Amino acid sequence: MHKYDICCVGHITLDKVVTPESTVHMPGGTAFYFSHAIRHFDDIDYTLVTSLAESEMKVVDDLRTKGVDAHVIPSRHSVYFENIYEENQDNRTQRVLAKADPFKVDSLNNIESRYYLLGALLADDFPLKLVKHLSSRGLIAIDSQGYLREVRDQNVYPVDWEDKLETLKYVHILKVNELEMEVLTGMTDIREAAYQLYDWGVREVLVTLGSLGSVIYDGTDFYPIPAYKPQQIVDATGCGDTYVTGYLYKRAKGASIEEAGKFAAAMATIKIEVSGPFCGTKEEVEKRITTAEEIIPVF
Fold first, then answer.
1. Are 202 and 109 within one domain?
2. Any bridge partners for residue 13, and if so which?
3. Where is the Carbohydrate kinase PfkB domain (predicted)?
4. Which of 92, 94, 234, 255 has its CA 20 to 30 A from that of 157?
5. pTM value?
6. CB-facing half-sphere around the CA of 177: CA atoms within 13 A
7. For residue range 67-92, what is the model confidence (pLDDT) as tens digits?
8. What dihedral do alpha carbons 23, 26, 28, 34 form, nearest 10°?
9. DSSP letter string over 123-176?
10. Is the separation of the CB atoms in 78 and 14 below 8 Å?
C-alpha cells in the first residue's frame, strides 16, 4: 500500500469571517488551510481526507485542480463557522451554525501515512478509537483548539478535553495557544504546562503566543521561536493551521525542531498579510526568516 508523508484528516468548513474592515464568506477549516498551504511545496507526498456535504464539493474539486490528492467521505452537512475578529486579530469570537458527521476508523483503513494531522474543528470529530488506530500506523499531530470547543445554541464555549488523558498518550505533536494550554493543564506557566503535557504522552509540545512568537518543548529542551513582524495585518484566520503546515512539512523533511518552528512562524506571518490561505513559496518563507524583524518570546 502506498504510504504518504503527511495525511491531513478534517472537515472543510463554510466560514464567515468578520473583521472591523470587512465581511468575507469563504471555505475554511484546518483541512482547507493546510491543503492550500502545503500544495506550494512539491517535494512532499501529501493527501487530504475530508468530509463535507455535496453542496461544497466544488471546494475539493478546486483543490484537486491545484494538484492536491483528496479523498472525500460524504456527509449530510458541512461545518459552518462564523469568525468575528476585533481590531487585535489575536482575539476571535466564534459561532457554529451547522455540524458535519464525525470521522470513523473504517473511513481511513486504506490511508497509510508517516504523519497524520487530525484537524479537529469540534470535540466529537475524532473518536478515541480512531486516534488509537492511526497512531499504530504513523505519528499523530493535533491542534487542540477543536477538542476544546463546545457548541451551545450555535455559540462556541471553551471546555476541557473530555478524553485528554487517554488521547494524548497517542499524540506525538500537539499545538496549543496560551488559553488552550491553561484549559488543558490548569497552568499559566508555559514551562510547567509543557512538562505536564509531555508527562501525559505528547513528544513535541508547540505553544503559540500569537504575535509574541511560540515555544516548543521536546522533553529535553525549550525552543523559543520568534514571531516575524508582518508588513501588514489583513486576516488571521488560518494562521494556526498555516503554522502547523510549516512545522509538519519541515519535520517530515527531516528538519530540526528549531528549524521547523522558524519556518512555521514565517509561513504564518506571510499568511496573515493576505485574506485567504497561504499562497507564498518556500523561498519567500526562507527569505522572511532572514530579513523580517523578530519578536522573541519571553517565558
1. no
2. 28, 79
3. 115-276
4. 234
5. 0.92
6. 17
7. 999 999 999 989 888 878 877 766 77
8. -110
9. TTSS-HHHHHHHHTTSEEEEEGGGGGEEEETTEEEE---TTHHHHGGG-SEEEE
10. yes
